[in-house]
Amino acid sequence: MSPEQKPDLEDSINVSEAHGRLDREAAACVREKRLAANGSEPISLWVIALCGVVVLVAGGILGGAGDWFNYKATFREGYVRSAAPGAEETGPQPKEALAAYMAKGAKIYSAKCNGCHGADAKGDGANYPSLVGSKWVTGSTEKLSMIILNGLQGPTSTGKAYGAGMPAQAAGLTPEDLAGVITYIRNNYGNSTGDVVTAEMAKAALDISAARTKVGQQTTGEELSANHEKELAGTPLDPKTMVDPVTLAPATAAKP
Question: What's residue 157's pLDDT?
């Protein structure tokens, strides 16, 4: 083959590129025809960009719309929505005061008293006295609260001393806890005073205990008789009054 007959490499490359361009254009034509047949057209990039700008601007306007989307402005502070008629209530429901305080007291007794006085509150006769029918349990509420909070050294109401005495149980007790356990042992194990020692009264007991001249020491029968032979101050609570079983506060109707 003569030099004049040799194929031009550059021409071959140009032909190949031309074929590729024709193939791409043909494919684009086929795609556009198919979209047109379906009644749709490709979305322009300008349209997409414009939609994005609109979304950003609208978001900025709504975000600064003041109270339009402010939850606190829409709903009144303290509002509690009541359940629709016939709907099932959720959460703890109010109970009669005596039952609610007893339930609270049962938990405290199990945690702080059961280990010594026993599940039946009869003690063991040697180291731990019985609470069943005890005059100090069913008598003065201030005296009983001082024993629970500060412990007891020496003879009990029966004149008998038990072991090293009772240790103080004040640690970790809230007014509600103290009120619950006092109410519980005064109305259980054969005891039946029928009253409720309220959280308000228990708070008074905590204040009295903190003001003792022998604070931090176990109380004695002599101190109890001399200083605490009375009832705790506070507003009496009808045992049938409905209260919140958790906070023991009187139950109130939900706000409209």
Answer: 93
Question: Residues, the chain, total?
Answer: 256
Query: In this structure, are residues 176 and 182 in contact, taking their beta carbons and an 8 Å threshold?
Result: no
User: Which tokens is 176 given?
Assistant: 């509600």
Task: Say which CATH architecture domain 95-243 belongs to.
Answer: Orthogonal Bundle (1.10)
Alpha-carbon distance 180 to 103, whole Å?
7
Of the candidates 132, 106, 102, 135, which has an alpha carbon nearest to the alpha carbon of residue 117? 132
**SS3 call for 217:** coil
Q: Quote the CA–CA distance of 234 and 99 in Å, as a whole number.
A: 19
Instruction: List, in order, residues 6 or more apart from 221 with CB less than 8 Å away.
Output: 152, 154, 155, 156, 157
Residue 48: the pLDDT is 78
Q: Exposed (0-12), middle (13-18) or buried (19+): which is 181, by Cβ within 10 Å?
A: buried
CB 171 within 8 A of CB 153: no
| 10-residue averages of pLDDT along the chain (256 residues) | 52 61 67 60 70 75 57 51 59 92 97 96 94 97 98 95 94 97 98 97 98 94 96 97 94 55
> Helix or strand or coil: residue 248?
coil
- Measured CA to CA, the distance from residue 185 to residue 148 in angstroms comes to 11
- Give the global pTM: 0.65
Q: Is the separation of the CB atoms in 232 and 209 below 8 Å?
A: no
Report the pLDDT value the prediction gives residue 92, as an integer from 0 to 100: 82
Query: What is the model's pLDDT at position 216?
Result: 92
Question: With the CA atoms of 177, 216, 187 and 104 taken in that order, what torsion angle do they form, in degrees rounded to the nearest 10?
Answer: 10
C-beta of residue 136 within 8 angstroms of C-beta of residue 156 = yes
